[in-house]
Amino acid sequence: MSIARSLLLKAAESPWLARQMSERAFSRRAIKKFMPGEELEDALQAARRLAAQGQGTILTQLGEALGSLSAADQVRDHYLQVFKEIKARGLPTWISIKPTQLGIDQSLETCRQHLLTLAQAAEQSGSSLWIDMEDHTYVDRTIDLYRSVRARHDRTGLAIQSYLFRTPKDVAALLEVKPWIRLVKGAYKEPATVAFPAKRDVDLAFYDVSLQLLEAARTGGALPIFGTHDIPLVRRLIAKARDLGVKQGQYEIHMLYGIRTADQADLTREGETVKTLISYGHAWFKWYMRRLAERPANVWFVMKSIVG
Ligand SMILES: Cc1cc2nc3c(=O)[nH]c(=O)nc-3n(C[C@H](O)[C@H](O)[C@H](O)COP(=O)(O)OP(=O)(O)OC[C@H]3O[C@@H](n4cnc5c(N)ncnc54)[C@H](O)[C@@H]3O)c2cc1C
Fold first, then answer.
1. d(CA 53, CA 291)
2. Which one of 105, 132, 135, 203 is the catalytic residue?
């Protein structure tokens, strides 16, 4: 892991820095690169704009590791409202959520109930529910939650990280439930005992796990989602899908709002299914630091925002 990435991920844990950044106008200007605004309405309007150019969207309210079960109830209620908005506006929009926002730290069973409730609401509104993957200490519990939700609801998916050594085995085991899997490289600071420290190995693992998923997609046994902005890798995977006879629409490409925007539009024009993950909400500090860590050159945007 590069020193810059490691420092930025460490800084993400600092409550002092979180307070400083949240209060400063320059950091509010800087986050505009990655989110259309802090309010749900900002995200819904961006979803409408992207829908007009053929792109689907996934919404997520920022926040993680809540302190109480009543806070988790509020998050569930918030997303129930979001599903209503999606249906009322006829948007091609899904929702993605972190289990720590739904109380996994307080009660696994309550978190499971909330996810089941949300998966049902997703189904009723023609949307779908995605579960994000957090750091490695949550993987077993998150897969367990996904299995419960998937047993009752088809339109649900799970994020899986290629930087973890365990991932090929997890994917092989999950194939029995015909999963929807969003493969990502992984955004957390993980020890070398559980994850590849070198980026090159993470990239190679991403390709290998994608092949595992594409092979399954040939017979309808999985919906692979390539959740990456690594365009050469995406291009190689599209070519591989074609070789294997996996058609456009039998896999998808998901990227974050504000990153590789032109490539997202190009891929859509080429007939690929592209969706953009839009974040909103006030608790953006940790999430924002992870975006900076992914590309330390982004710190330049922060510097530019300080001066103007
Ligand atoms: C839809 C989606 C959902 C995700 N969900 C999760 C999740 O549930 N759990 C999790 O751990 N991680 C998640 N991530 C984050 C992911 O793990 C990576 O940290 C992130 O996508 C950066 O890696 P990359 O695959 O884009 O590849 P990289 O090899 O890091 O980047 C490839 C290229 O993309 C561009 N790029 C990448 N990141 C940025 C950035 N922040 N700013 C500007 N340019 C950039 C750069 O040009 C870079 O050269 C998600 C990512 C996406 C796209």
1. 25
2. 132
Phi, psi of 230, deg, nearest 5: -80, 90
Indicate the range of 68-72, 149-153, 201-205, 239-243 predicted with least confidence.
68-72
C-beta 161 within 6 A of ligand 1: yes
For residue 277, the domain's CATH number is: 3.20.20.220
In the set 76, 112, 182, 291, the catalytic residue is 182
Residue 48: give the domain boundaries. 36-283
Q: How confident is the model at residue 197 (pLDDT cuts 50, 70, 90)?
A: very high
* Measured distance CA(30)–CA(10) in Å, rounded: 20
Question: Is 184:133 a contact under the CB 8 Å cutoff?
Answer: yes
Specify the pTM.
0.90
Token reading at 78: 């918030």
Q: Of 188, 225, 214, nearest to 58 (Cα)?
A: 225
In a domain, 307, yes or no: no
Residue 4 located in a structural domain: no
**How far apart, in Å, do the first and last CA atoms of the chain sit?**
32
Q: How far apart are CA 99 and CA 72, in angstroms?
A: 9
Question: Which residue is closest in CA terms to ligand 1's atom 2?
Answer: 227
